[in-house]
What does this fold into?
Amino acid sequence: MSASLRVGVLGLGSMGRHHVRNARNTEGFELVAVADPGGDRFGVAGSLPVLDSVSAMIEVGIDAAIVAVPTVFHEEAALALAEAGVHTLVEKPLAASVEAGQRVAEAFKSAGLIGAVGYVERCNPALLEMRKRLAEGQLGDVYQVVTRRQSPFPARISDVGVVKDLATHDVDLAAWVAGSEYKEIYAQTAHRSGREHEDMVVASGSFKNGVLVNHLVNWLTPFKDRTTIVTGEHGALVADTAMGDLTFYENGDMPLQWDQIAAFRGVSEGTVTRYALAKREPLAVEHEHFRDAILGKGNEHVSMEEGLNALKVVEGILASAASGQAVHF
It folds into this structure.
């Protein structure tokens, strides 16, 4: 393997263009190939020829690849890259179905390759800081994880609904923050915009470690809301991942003088602290994690096994919504 990893990007759309930019700027990466059968509508290829397929990209000679094509094409592209011995980062979700995801994950495992999934929220500065503080015990016992991911409909999405496109982020980050796999999930979805796929979902459940979880996701809100709230023994940490902000709401420790409230065995409002964080672009951090995993210098990437777990929960959400019953894992 050369001093710099020779990298190719498959898919030059809304996400792929940002992968191209970051691949060019990541130390230790050399962007040598880009491919998209639909061409380069954002004009990001620069001096590189725009190839028409994953096979053409492989023929250039690459060590690593980033797959940013629509979800329905993930399996075909990833399997070709695994067969060619190319370490690969696949945009979320891992594949269009659990069965396809299993085939992809097994292919990379069998080949001894790094297979990563692009859950970029794990690289958000607010969530990185949140997870560090949770690990240090700032909240004590963690009781609940709540996520909100609401925004207008993105016209670029046509192959999946809001569950596989957006809720999959929250499924992954909540399990990562809670440090546990899902135990069960119950969900309801709605179709309010006349499209084939669902555009709203509410889901609730629990993790195997007893932490409760709730997700609110939709494409029908006229503002962008990206919030993760973790409530625990000593208060709550609130991450605004759209802005990369983290705030700590501490339980109050002042004695209550109002008898009616004092009789309630709960908590009171205490000090509120908003942390000053270094805010790097999450996608840049994700590329570095992928690079370090390939070089054997780190293990902070989202593995395909983790991506497969998220896909199982996502399909569980859809199955629960269809049946009206909770799904157990």
Q: What stands out?
A: The domain at 5-113 is CATH 3.40.50.720 (Rossmann fold).
